[in-house]
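Recall that a protein's primary structure is simply its ordered list of amino acids. Everything else, from secondary elements to tertiary packing, is in principle encoded there. The following example makes that idea concrete.
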Amino acid sequence: MAQPTTREQFKGWVLRKLGAPVIDINVSDEQIDDRVDEAVDFWRDYHYSGSQLVYLKHQITQADKDNGYVTLPAQLLGISGIFNMQSSISTGGGIFNVQYQFVLNNLEDITGYNITNYFMSMQHLEFLQEMLVGRPMIRYNKHVNKLHIDSGQDAMTVGEYIIIEAYDVIDPDTYSDVWSDRWLQNYTAALVKEQWGSNLTKFTGMQLVGGVSFNGEQILADAKEERRMMEEEAVQNLQPLSYNYIG
């Protein structure tokens, strides 16, 4: 069968992986929906395929300046930073740019054999930028969706643009390929299996016709171990390479 492309197909895939329709999976549809939501949330937070780096452009308004914060779209995981809105010691247009002037006066060395001096000089300029100008102080919480800029109102100029570097979640409703993600499929199956085992534990020791008995405790234990191993793998090995954000 083809890979699932919708939520309902995904739920059917998970149940078949656990044994349906050959085995009756004692989990309600509402419980499956809850476990799918839980799996997607964890996948977004800890798996490199669950989020993407984006750059958001925003024009400062008078309301933004008065409030001291910028309202951002929902579902952002966190903010990596914003491009410096204050003056820069290396800014300037055209031939007045510091980098342009440096390259112009050291063109022979740069195009010839040695760019060490250029590299060290640019590093020194960045250091001076950090010491003399600094970076905008920001605060953000993904449940509030407000980017607070604590560098003072003078740092926010009405009409100017800021560029926000952020991590945005991957929405399955927009990108149906999410439902074919192998890790998400296996992790959801582990969560549904854990729910199944938990449901069966109340029948522990009960025997059916023919001497068959429920073994919910074993199913629950196996599912918890699968979940633990997958979450440990995600946290240690599958997070994005750069994940230093505020959120």
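The longest strand covers residues 51-59. The mean pLDDT is 83.
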